[in-house]
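User: Okay, second chain of the day. Same drill as before: sequence in, structure tokens out.
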Amino acid sequence: MDVNQALRERRSVRAFTEQVPQVELVQRLMQDAAQAASGGNMQPWRVAAITGAPLAAMLADVAQAPGEENPQYLSYPPNLWEPYRTRRFANGEELYQSINIPREDKAGRLQQLAKNARFFGAPVGLIMFTEQRMGPVQWMDLGIYLQSFMLRATEEGLATCPQGFWRRYDSVIKQHIEVPEGYLVAFGIALGYEDKTAPINTMRATRAEFSEWGQLKGF
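Assistant: Same drill. Structure tokens below.
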């Protein structure tokens, strides 16, 4: 598989089999992703992979916690404007259509949303941390690591789903994963093998046409 193929095959998977990736493979993916570009070679990430009984214990505590969204690290800006509002809305509608949950079925949508708190059933969860003192440029570096990890996972036949959702449970997670003082949860990643029979995994997010966001000058 080349990079272009991995880019096109990677997507957010939301249903997994019970098969657990080998620990050597998970570590290799984590280490390979650390070749990601990083301003000043600061490498502002710490990453932990968790599975088995430790993961079950963490998810049990998460299920009992209310979760709090840090206003400094919202997944989306408030009062979202165009064209981003329409893109986000369409993405949500396509997702729920894939599992036949209409807009008026609020309970069904909440049940699906709650699966975020279980890594969508993935057997491995990864948590990426960074120091709270880091700025927007270092968060860009985190994104480069995240994409690098997901592309390598795709190459190895694994499925992923990046989740900003886990920022809500910073304090709970840090009861189960030790990090130095001053670090916070940046992202989670669900990791495992795709359940190819799950309807939700038939959903494919669309991308805006090049003319909407790109320009070429002087060619």
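The chain has one domain: 3-77+117-209.

User: Thanks, on to the next one.
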